[in-house]
Design a protein that fits this description.
single chain; alpha/beta; 8 helices; globular; disordered N terminus; binds FE2/S2 (inorganic) cluster
Length: 325
């Protein structure tokens, strides 16, 4: 899955690495798989399944892509990039890469891990949301995990379909539309044994529908993990004042900017990566005030506590918000 763009100066300096493109192969219409290796060869760092790799496509911009391998001592990192017609340039850049090109990257980060203690795993993917779940499927196959993968894709446009069929056999269910998916997944959500973990990756509308159906079937929130194409950062925004408790000063956050942008403008920026509410890098402690949460990182309990904010997308819910900065 592609997730979004960002400017990560602090994070990039801390975790940057240089890779070289070893191969480019089509994974579907408009989707190309990039194989990236260390310039001198050798193993790359292992990563948990469902991790992201950040690729810097401009000096101040990074896109974060799901790694499709299972992460055990990889000789290469592989990501699949959908050419997005409305992209801010990152996917077009990735589609122009050729073998031999060098790429600056941000080391893999775990954002959508396998629940290692679960007895069974139900994976639900929509479109390019298949990429982290391909990584999960490989991991389950390597370690003997019990899983079923439900994959909804537009007929003829499903990325990695042949590879998934070979890998998963009858543990893969493929659907050409959401009605067909629901006819199968709805009853499956009801009959899963205790100890099953649900993972959903795809458009927000699909995630909302699957999680709502799971909750109707009495799944605990802790048994559901989601990863979306982006957080709901685009809703209406109101201005508010952010007070930096430790620094003893205040910043006005306009309706046109995010809290993170306002902090950076004031020279008080925090580390950031995705800038879309999905990676967790910008987590900031709240000292006082209510938060309008728009991220996909914090758990329901963390949001309820009001102790944390992801300033790249979330905002003060009232006129003032005090941060522990
Ligand atoms: S920078 Fe990723 S959640 Fe804020």
């Amino acid at each position: 899955m592609t997730s979004v763009t960002s400017e990560p100066p602090t994070a990039a300096r801390r975790t940057g690495l240089r890779l070289v493109v070893a191969g480019v192969t089509p994974a579907a219409d408009d989707v190309r798989q990039l194989t990236l290796v260390a310039p001198g060869g050798g193993c790359l760092s292992s990563h948990p399944p469902g991790s992201h790799l950040g690729l810097r496509w401009r000096q101040d911009r990074v896109n974060s892509y799901s790694l499709t391998s299972d992460g055990e001592s990889p000789a290469a990192y592989t990501v699949s990039v959908l050419r997005a017609p409305d992209s801010r340039g990152g996917s077009a850049w990735a589609h122009e890469l050729r073998a031999g090109d060098f790429v600056d990257a941000i080391a893999p980060r775990s954002t959508f891990p396998v629940a290692a203690r679960a007895r069974r795993h139900l994976l639900v993917a929509g479109g390019i949301g298949i990429t982290p779940l391909l990584s999960h499927a490989r991991w389950h196959i390597r370690w003997g995990g019990d899983f079923t993968l439900y994959y909804c894709q537009r007929p003829g446009r499903g990325a990695h379909l042949g590879e998934l069929r070979d890998l998963c056999g009858d543990r893969l269910r493929v659907y050409g539309n959401r009605d067909a998916l629901w006819a199968d997944l709805g009853p499956a959500l009801v009959r899963q044994p205790l100890g099953t973990q649900l993972y959903v990756c795809g458009p927000l509308s699909m995630i909302d529908a699957v999680t709502a159906a799971a909750k109707r079937a009495h799944w605990a929130g802790s048994r559901i993990r989601c990863e979306a194409f982006g957080a709901s950062a685009d809703g209406p925004r109101a201005p508010f004042r952010a007070t930096l408790a430790a620094a003893g000063r205040s910043i006005d956050v306009s309706a046109e900017e995010t809290l993170l942008e306002a902090l950076e403008r004031a020279g008080a920026g925090v580390p950031s990566l995705c800038r879309s509410g999905i990676c967790g890098e910008c987590r900031t402690a709240v000292a006082r005030g209510r938060v309008e949460h728009r991220d996909l990182v914090l758990s329901a309990a963390e949001k309820e506590s009001g102790d944390w904010i992801m300033p790249c997308v979330s905002r003060g819910a009232g006129d003032e918000l005090e941060l522990a900065l």
